[in-house]
Design goal:
The structure holds two protein chains of two kinds.
Chain A (H helix, E strand, L loop, with lengths): L3 E3 L4 E4 L4 E7 L4 E9 L6 E6 L3 E5 L2 E6 L4 E6 L8 E9 L6 E2 L3 E6 L1
Parallel strand pairs in A: 2-11
Antiparallel strand pairs in A: 1-3, 3-8, 4-5, 4-9, 6-7, 7-8, 9-10, 9-11
Chain B lengths: L4 E3 L2 E4 L5 E6 L6 E8 L3 E9 L2 E4 L8 E7 L2 E6 L8 E8 L8 E2 L3 E5 L1
Parallel strand pairs in B: 2-11
Antiparallel strand pairs in B: 1-3, 3-8, 4-5, 4-9, 5-6, 7-8, 9-10, 9-11
Classes of the chains: A mainly beta, B mainly beta.
Chain lengths: 111, 114
């Protein structure tokens, strides 16, 4: 079992709809979580991070963390074709410095 | 800020040759990471350094791989001898220590071993 698991997709979403991405993790020592977006042929870029239970909103993006259930999610509201990319979830332990990434979910937003 | 700088962007080599990938982290970032990305295995951490000292090299696949960080502004990842299964995109990333600190990636090196 990988430490961080994601559905590989593709997740196909109509333009303007909400894209919902999920991520589960196995290590309860993981404290902080990050969502990265990666366009084809490019490097990952950070969208959001979250370390407290609950929701965190930033523009069209909302990250949700539930430590009891060991899952993290990312909602993309009003999805745009430019949101088409692979989204990587990553976790890090409280006293650690090592980000462990999931395999990524490919999102395809159709006009 | 120039960001994390990696070179070369692309490397094509023949099996058995030595390959050296280079990275310059963002100034002031005291942690540096080398990742490898493939379709099959995703983004895997190979090794990371804190203050130029290797902390965790458990992801280094085998003795053919070695990494150094002689100073705060430079790191290398070397593969000797290279094999076709080493073909991947290799990313270098850096971050300052602290909770919630962002990890910044370089543009990556696309390695093809023929």
């Amino acid at each position: 079992q990988k430490e961080v698991e994601q559905n590989s997709g593709p997740l196909s979403v109509p333009e303007g709809a909400i894209a919902s991405l999920n991520c589960t993790y196995s290590d309860r020592g993981s404290q902080s979580f990050f969502w990265y977006r990666q366009y084809s042929g490019k490097s990952p870029e950070l969208i959001m991070f979250i370390y407290s239970n609950g929701d965190k909103e930033d523009g069209r993006f909302t990250a949700q963390l539930n430590k009891a259930s060991q899952y993290v999610s990312l909602l993309i509201r009003d999805s745009q074709p430019s949101d088409s990319a692979t989204y990587l979830c990553a976790g890090i332990k409280a006293a650690g410095n090592k980000l462990t990434f999931g395999g990524g979910t490919r999102v395809l937003v159709k006009p | 800020d120039a960001g994390v700088i990696q070179s070369p962007r692309h490397e094509v080599t023949e099996m058995g040759q030595e390959v050296t990938l280079r990275c310059k982290p963002i100034s002031g970032h005291n942690s540096l990471f080398w990742y490898r990305q493939t379709m099959m295995r995703g983004l895997e951490l190979l090794i990371y350094f804190n203050n130029n000292v290797p902390i965790d090299d458990s992801g280094m696949p085998e003795d053919r791989f070695s990494a150094k960080m002689p100073n705060a502004s430079f790191s290398t990842l070397k593969i000797q001898p290279s094999e076709p299964r080493d073909s991947a995109v290799y990313f270098c990333a850096s971050r300052p220590t602290g909770k919630g600190k962002k990890l910044f990636f370089g543009s990556g090196t696309q390695l093809s071993v023929l």
